Please model this.
Amino acid sequence: MKTDDLAGRIRQARELIAPAIAGCDSPQIETMLRGADMELYLALWNLGEAISVRPELDYADRS
Amino acid sequence: MTSAPPSALGRAARESLFWNQATETMPRARLDALHLHRLQGLARYAYDYSPFYRRKWDAAGLKPQDIRTLEDFKRKVPITDKSEFIQLQQESPPYGPTLALPEDFIVHHCETSGTTGLPLGIPYSMIDTVRYGESWVYGWWGLGIRPADTLYFAFGWGNFAGFWSAYWGARRLGCRVISGGGLDTKGHIQAIQRLKPTVLISTPTFALRMAAVAAEMGVDLVNSSIKYTYHAGEPGPTALPAMRAAIERAWGAKAGELLGIAEVDAMAPGCPNGDGVHLNEMNVFAWSMDPATGGEVADGEIGENIVTAYAQTAQPLLNYRTHDLVRRRASCSCGRTWTKFEGSVLGRTDFMVTVRGTNVYQTAVENILAEVPGVSMHYELVLTREGDNDIMTVRFEPEKSITDKRSLWEEAGKEAAERIHKSLHVRLNVVPVEPGSLSRYELKTKRIFDQRPKEFRRALDR
Model:
């Protein structure tokens, strides 16, 4: 798969997870979802995508 | 019907020569554009969330939006130094105003070894630990280490960032970890014989110490399960070719190393060519500075490595002095475009002593000693003061092959003094000492013993 296509898929996955994190009331499941999103974030970062340098605070800003 | 056994990675990934080819071979123009974007974001973040940076930049009249180019970043962003962080942490422990994230986000605490003075506290967020661990894996993969390998960690953990981060890396690669924990050297050898790991993780001098103890036990490590040794924490096989030869001979294994700085990152994994390290440009932005003028030094010339870490969001480090002297190269035959530091660290700006008008760096002396027949890897550099002069005395243990020929000890010392004089244009006292009389260390080996009066030492060395 080309890098651009791969990055596009990863961005879609993050978009799917974001509302699940926002709507979660279980600390265990929310922590897992945040962990999953962190991995997707790092995949984008390490594909050379121009994204935020502070993903942990991005969540805090949204909640 | 037979089928391939399940594997941690698919075939294409397994066959890759790179941990991440997309970025390890990214063209320079694209890397630089990415750095600019990330540095601008990091500058905004540091200014908004770190009281330390806000105060420092306000005093300098700098706002994050003033950074429009990489040149702006290098020239306008104030240089930072470990001494500032240590002082602020001392005034308001544990981290003072250097912390940029709420305590909620801090998942791990480490400390520097304190070999240059007081230890620096290092807070890490979860993502910091993941990024830091990834830096180890680039070098492991380039050397040939794979998820099926087993890493043996030959050290006590403590708060030492170097090997905690190696553990974080092992988790990323997915290989098996065996911790040597609090075993003594003999215990490590026995554990390796019993558990059959394939990779030794240790400081380079401890790998040699283990080899010496194994020989005393009658164990030939060349026939052990170890296929690779990988090192950090002090000059190793990349910086000192003689060290590589000694380790590879003793273990019958391929030796690798990375250049890391506890508070920054395991930032420069070893080049598979074995002659330098490549800066992990996904985690760190770096440039070289002339320590005397503060100006930038061109590629190919020696300068102080100035770093900005993307892997430290808890305690950001921007334009941070490493005091490491490096020679940058823009290209490498291994195919990586990430900046190469030829020979790893060539010297230290802060472990320099002026002897009879000549600047002498610790590493320069170490490089020469490593090549002198009869001089073992166990030596100390002792700094004293006589009148207006700094004096450096080299105290070394003779190699095992000449321990019973005392006359050869003096000859080895004379040869070392001659070589130092020829290369560095300075005469040092080189004195042999009894075999086994110098201290042995599991972690960082203490080489410098500064016995000069306090006023003649730098602040952090007092």
Residues 458-462 of chain B have pLDDT under 50 and may be disordered. The first helix of chain B runs from residue 11 to 14. Residues 276 and 344 of chain B are 5 Å apart (CA to CA).
